[in-house]
Amino acid sequence: IKVLICQGTGGMASGAAAVAAAFTEEFTKQGVEASVGKRCEVVGTGCRGLCANDVLVDIVLPGQTAVTYDFVTPEMVPQIVTEHVLGNEPVAKKVAGEYYTQFLAKQQRIIFSRCGTVNAESLDDFLAHQGFTGIKKAVTMKPAEVIDEVKRSGLRGRGGGGFPTGVKWSFCAASPGDEKYLICNADEGDPGAFMDRSVLEGDPYGLIEGMMIGAYAIGCKFAYVYVRAEYPLAIKRLQLAIDTCYAKGILGENCMGLGFQLDMRIKAGAGAFVCGEETALMASIEGHRGMSRPRPPFPAVRGLWGKPTNINNVETFANVSYIFYNGADWYSSIGTEGTKGTKIFALTGKVKHTGLVEVPAGTTMKEVIYDVCGGILNNRKFKAVQAGGPSGGCLPAEALDAQVDYDSLIKAGAMMGSGGLVVMDETTCMVDIARFFLNFTRAESCGKCIPCRIGLKIMLEILERITHGEGREGDLELLEDMAYDIKKSSLCGLGQTAPNPVLSTLRYFRHEYEAHIKEKR
Ligand code: SF4
Prior knowledge:
This protein is an alpha/beta fold and 521 residues long. The chain has four domains: 2-105, Glutaredoxin (3-Layer(aba) Sandwich), CATH 3.40.30; 127-332, 3-Layer(aba) Sandwich (Rossmann fold), CATH 3.40.50.11540; 342-425, Ubiquitin-like (UB roll) (Roll), CATH 3.10.20.600; 430-520, NADH-ubiquinone oxidoreductase 51kDa subunit, iron-sulphur binding domain (de novo design (two linked rop proteins)). Helix content is 44%, strand content 13%. The chain is built from 22 helices and 13 strands. It has helices at 9-13, 16-29, 32-36, 77-86, 98-105, 123-128, 133-138, 143-153, 165-174, 195-202, 204-218, 232-247, 278-285, 314-326, 328-332, 365-372, 406-412, 430-444, 450-467, 475-489, 493-497, 500-520; strands spanning 2-6, 41-45, 57-60, 67-69, 181-186, 222-227, 263-268, 309-313, 342-349, 355-360, 382-387, 393-396, 420-425. The longest helix is centred in the last third of the chain and has 21 residues, at 500-520. It starts with a strand and ends with a helix. Bound molecules: iron/sulfur cluster. Iron/sulfur cluster is lined by residues 274, 292, 445-449, 452-453, 490-492, 494-495.
């Protein structure tokens, strides 16, 4: 008998530890093991996506499918144990409703397949669910063949840019030198994005395996995971997994006895959004202030400590493990022509079921918001969705049929970004939203180059006077001119994409800007 309790950050914040303790206590009190003659296990799992309805608990009785309860509290536990575990009669009133089936129906949970089903802290559980079969397969191939397999899969980097992963690996592999570095970018700084945190908390061994495959392919002996310090549970679970891997000889001088070396270390970030940018991230690891530098030279040629370096994000490495479990052909059969596999999205804002969803690329935005996440809160009217975080864009109702893939979203005026989707209803002022995101990027600018440092500040001042009813004639044209200039002349991705929320709201909601300016007159 298993009781699976969601113990990601969302679950823990909602009281998952107390619920787990209540089950353990109740099993002893009611003598459940003796009574049913079966072992009872209370398992803390990673997040299963429906964070708004935590604490989520699955009761798995022998030979039966799991029954899910939502909003579980310690007070509900005695009844669940008596009626369901002992009496084989689920407590109907407390079982998660039809919405939960609907939430899962259109998802294809590949990266999340272990999140919510296995004990995130158990190496044995990981091994029982395909764990490390990917790296074992990879080492039967030559490093160049591993890179070809990733190229054939069509995997594109999930960090935002969408660059083909296999091609990126080939650049670093081709760089001369024995000392190379592999970095996992887990500095997930977009407001509303928490996909990577969930993978780190729910499947840390899966990430380690993906990085081992990357390190073997490129020829790196040292890897860093750069995790934002605001993710203490993710850091704790990942550190535990790394320590266990060292203790079992999975990491170190001769990984799993497979004949290659890999050391891995966590570097906790210090809360700067710009450190999600590759060159700023490497500066931070080296102990410098997190600031971007011009490229070229690209990290694949001169990266960390001046050595060839390859950087991918958490979701990208997590995908790699599954490519080697199931093959490139399997992977490339999922998704669209230009975007293969699945994509994880974090939904927040005015949507009924906030949380994390994993859908095949090509699913429409409408399906994600309405079919998976239940539509708009309080049955209000949908107004827009901000896709791709502060560097992305706001899409209106007319763009809801856009498929979630790299190319379609760019065409619609947004970007995939790392996968944050902030949903807005009819009560939201879009000028205010543009101001919010611009204020965020302005505050996070590292200040190194003038277009970003000064330009964003001036754009923000214009937006502020518009929202305060003091807009002037010509402000919108000035905003547009500045936005394009900043995009063109900024040094790094932060400045190059920061004006996007302003441009997309001007494109789709210009009338709201004009109404603010007219109000004053
Ligand atoms: Fe720094 Fe902004 Fe210039 Fe990037 S674009 S280097 S964040 S000032």
